[in-house]
């Protein structure tokens, strides 16, 4: 893996070759990562895995057309061939009046902010194994746990670099650490499984392996002997680990590309109130140590904090340069890049801000409801907002979590669901999308 400075130099070298080969403009992106993980099961070492990847991608523009190509070979001869082939491909491609680099005047010119994304400590395999064993041991020690799928611990490191032909150059490194455990409980005919995991940029920001293991064991035991629920209309409460998916659906519908294609259930709703006025959804890609933090976007534009939803109102679309041209707007610094191909839209460190009531108070007036802890499948229509997903979780009876339930479906329409959404005050910040416990009344539940 190259250092950030070396990665920038390779990107510049590729851009120079592309211009010499006949490109009118272009950008190059370098993405590399390495990771190591150790897994144990029933106290014995099960797997040690190390992976490394390194990729450089080139996008060129010729005569209003563009082409993208990538390679894992970063040698001079490979870059020569890459540049030549990309220009030939662009010359043969149809013109696209929306294609092009981001506006030069919007590029990040200042030094990128320091986001503390790199942990100087790098655990060795023996330390990873010890953490994995501690997580599994704690999970297996929970009364009622009968078997284990294992514990694991991992550490990784990556580098991203981007250079454009019109003046942007930047690079940054980042690390990641993860711990997890997964166990089983119950009899052979009614076996239940659950898990717990955490990830962070710095290992010091993680809970102890034992805490993660205990959480996995307690979650699993609570699911034993699930009942069924009768079909009907219920208040549905989403646990934070699944409620974040609702914000993910919102994010996809706010993509400028989806709006330009008229393929979003939020079409024509810019600026409108779609949540209760108590709901604010913020983004901060510059949060130190954040899981989705980055100092610049995939087109060289600065990133920054903003509210995607403020007092219940949408505040505008998320746009890369191409979508902005289609919509007659300005790119918003939300472009993201893979090793090749055109940019797509993403957002950094999203938070649905905490409400003012406790989780207990959120449940208190529910005489008969559903608490969802797991969602299954992908039954969401991004064009209409129709929502239908398999689920499991618990009954809520007279304001209290009751017995486990499984094999049911929760359904509704996201516009209606957003309008009825209420947030508790139990927000924790550690995922890429963080939400507190969420309640939505009047959802359709299909069970027995």
TrEMBL record:
Region of interest (Disordered), residue spans: 282-302
Domain Metalloprotease TldD/E C-terminal: 231-447
Family designation: Belongs to the peptidase U62 family.
PANTHER family (UniProt xref): METALLOPROTEASE PMBA (PTHR43421:SF1)
UniProt cross-references to SUPFAM superfamilies, sorted A to Z: Putative modulator of DNA gyrase, PmbA/TldD (SSF111283)
Domain Metalloprotease TldD/E central: 121-223
UniProt organism field: Novosphingobium fuchskuhlense
Ranges in coiled-coil conformation: none
GO BP field: proteolysis
Domain of life, per lineage: Bacteria
Example of a GO cellular component annotation carried by this entry: cytosol
Occurrences of domain Metalloprotease TldD/E N-terminal (ranges): 27-90
Entry-linked InterPro entries: Metalloprtase-TldD/E_C, Metalloprtase-TldD/E_cen_dom, Metalloprtase-TldD/E_N, PmbA, TldD/PmbA_N, TldD/PmbA_sf
Protein's name according to its UniProt entry: Modulator protein
GO MF term (any one): metallopeptidase activity
């Amino acid at each position: 893996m190259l250092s950030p400075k070396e990665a920038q130099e390779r990107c510049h070298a590729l851009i120079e070759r592309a211009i010499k080969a006949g490109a009118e403009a272009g950008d190059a992106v370098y993405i590399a990562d390495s990771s190591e993980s150790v897994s144990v099961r029933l106290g014995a070492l099960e797997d040690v895995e190390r992976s490394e990847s390194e990729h450089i991608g080139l996008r060129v523009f010729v005569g209003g057309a563009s082409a993208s190509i990538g390679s894992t070979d970063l040698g001079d001869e490979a870059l020569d061939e890459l540049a030549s082939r990309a220009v030939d491909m662009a010359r043969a491609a149809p013109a696209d009046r929306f294609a092009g680099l981001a506006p030069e005047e919007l590029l990040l010119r200042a030094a990128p902010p320091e986001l503390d994304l790199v942990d100087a400590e790098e655990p060795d395999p023996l330390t990873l194994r010890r953490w994995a064993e501690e997580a599994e041991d704690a999970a297996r020690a929970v009364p009622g746990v009968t078997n284990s799928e294992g514990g694991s611990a991992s550490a990784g490191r990556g580098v991203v670099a981007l250079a454009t032909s019109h003046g942007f150059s930047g690079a940054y490194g980042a690390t990641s650490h993860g711990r997890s455990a997964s166990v089983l409980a119950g009899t052979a005919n009614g076996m239940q499984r659950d898990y717990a995991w955490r990830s962070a940029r710095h290992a010091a920001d993680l809970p102890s392996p034992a805490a993660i293991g205990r959480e996995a064991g307690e979650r699993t035991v609570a699911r034993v002997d699930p009942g069924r629920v009768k079909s009907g209309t219920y208040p549905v409460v989403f646990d934070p680990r699944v409620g974040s998916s609702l914000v993910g659906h919102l994010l996809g519908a706010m993509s400028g590309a989806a709006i330009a294609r008229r393929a979003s259930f939020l079409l024509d709703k810019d600026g409108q109130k779609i949540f209760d006025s108590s709901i604010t959804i913020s983004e901060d890609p510059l949060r130190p140590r954040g899981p989705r933090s980055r100092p610049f976007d995939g087109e060289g534009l600065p990133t920054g904090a903003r509210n995607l939803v403020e007092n219940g109102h949408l505040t505008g679309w998320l746009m890369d340069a191409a979508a902005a041209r289609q919509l007659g707007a300005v790119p918003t610094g939300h472009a993201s890049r893979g090793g090749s191909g055109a940019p797509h839209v993403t957002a950094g460190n999203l938070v649905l801000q905490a409400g003012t009531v406790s989780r207990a108070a959120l449940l208190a007036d529910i005489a008969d409801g559903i608490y969802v802890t797991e969602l299954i499948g992908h039954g969401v229509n991004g064009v209409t907002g129709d929502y239908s997903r398999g689920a499991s979780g618990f009954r809520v009876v007279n304001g209290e979590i009751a017995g486990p339930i499984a094999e049911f479906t929760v359904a509704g329409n996201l516009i209606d669901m957003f309008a009825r959404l209420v947030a508790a005050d139990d927000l924790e910040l550690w995922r890429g999308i963080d939400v507190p416990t969420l309640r939505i009344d009047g959802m359709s539940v299909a069970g027995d």
